[in-house]
Design a protein that fits this description.
By secondary structure, this protein is mainly alpha-helical. It has one domain. It has 4 helices and no strands. Helix 3 packs antiparallel against helix 4.
Length: 126
């Protein structure tokens, strides 16, 4: 009974929802804002009324952000350190600041991506 209902519902476009989430827009319509503040998602889309209150991204966005930023910063450390030869104090000031700035910039983007993918993975209402 439940399987028949899930199969009858139309599939949601995963790529489109992910792109809209990356842009910070509603995964359903792409017009309404996804966040009401820095990381606080809206309960429902102001444009189409889609209920987004039940979508929980939890620790996924933080994990993805740290994974991406860690690889970028370590690559930069290895690349810049080999030819620049900065003093230790300068490197100790620059790299953590760069890592923090990248984390703060990428965290809302990755949270939007997770919300979009989670929304697309749920069955559409019949």
């Amino acid at each position: 009974m439940i399987d028949d209902r899930l199969q009858a519902s139309p599939a949601r476009n995963l790529r489109l929802a992910a792109r809209r989430g990356l842009a910070g827009r509603c995964p359903a319509c792409g017009k309404g804002r996804l966040f009401r503040s820095y990381l606080k998602p809206v309960d429902s889309c102001a444009s189409c009324g889609e209920d987004l209150s039940q979508i929980r991204a939890d620790d996924g966005p933080a994990w993805l952000t740290i994974l991406v930023v860690g690889h970028l910063v370590v690559a930069l450390v290895l690349g810049i350190d080999s030819w620049a030869g900065w003093p230790l104090w300068q490197a100790m000031a620059f790299y953590p600041t760069l890592g923090l700035a990248l984390c703060l910039a990428l965290l809302p983007v990755s949270k939007g991506l997770f919300i979009g993918v989670i929304w697309a993975g749920e069955p559409a209402p019949a």
